[in-house]
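Much of what follows relies on a compact textual record of a protein's fold. Here is one such record, which you should read through line by line:
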Amino acid sequence: MKSELRSTEELDLEIERVCKNITESYDFFDYIRGFDFGVKDVLKNIDVIRYDEITKDFDGIQFYVAFKKRIEILASIEYAKRLDSESYEMYLSDFTDDEILDDVTSYPVPEEDFYDGIKDDVRRELMDTSIFLEKIFYGDAVKITSDDLKYANDWRAKTTINAIDMSRIAFLNRYGGFMGGMDNKEYNEVIGDVLKENASIETVKKAREIPFGYGWEEGGIGKSTIWAEIDLSAPDEILFEGFKNWIGHAREMHGNVFDKKVSKGKVKSNFKPSLIKRWKVLRVLAYFDMKILSSFFHQSPTLKQYGDALYFDEYDVDTTEKVRKTLIPIVQDVVDGDCLDNLMQKVIAEDKIPK
């Protein structure tokens, strides 16, 4: 059943709500930029016990969304810092002397306009961050809302098995070298001719000469995918056993096409369910929010300060070493490693994606 189009009144209300959120976000951003926060102010704003209470029942998908959100916010803050550090002299250096003396064009802009533009760019970049910081100050940053699900929108790219058709193949490969793998004009013309009703024998012969694996994606989100066909009428036990025997050959075929080394043995997931428990025990989410506040207010807590704030209730533990040797490696794996991708693949495989 098709969804009904929203009325003009509903759209107007939605636009009004969005504009109101933007205005309030900018107002709060300007407000907190005036805070003179030190390290202690940053760390004490994170109520570790409240984080424990809310995250005790978190499952994999909730942690995935929470981590993805914070990784994006940290990246946004760092990008805003780079914007804020740009100088008018750096800006002028991108112009030639002839361009600077040109009275016809509007560039380069005057110095005052340049810095006003930088300020506006920073505010826009940090709009979502401002909303999140407000939630931190009101103690609502840990809860997952429906709006947060946008941070899990890439879950389809983590699906290990997908049904595709010709329209999907054509769509992906419309982007050539950017998303798809069909960037050879001659091959594409031959394939197009074969699909025509009266393709010649010569055209079909040319199609058979196209290298095996053409169209598989070499880069981008599908860089490790290939196309295959499945006989759905085959009994399940035969399909499952056949897949186990076939997967090694498939990886070898993919490696041969792109001249890459492939694993000879089984590829095992490095995500273990016990990791979710460790995220809770180590208070990783609280650490992320301390990190976000520290970055926003240009503070650099020491490992000892992080340890004292996060593990204040652990008396027989060297909390500095706990941060250094246990927490930081786990955080780095969340940010730079494969654990979140493996987690999402596991969630998808178990059909636990929220419907």
The mean pLDDT is 81. The radius of gyration is 26 Å. The first helix runs from residue 8 to 32.
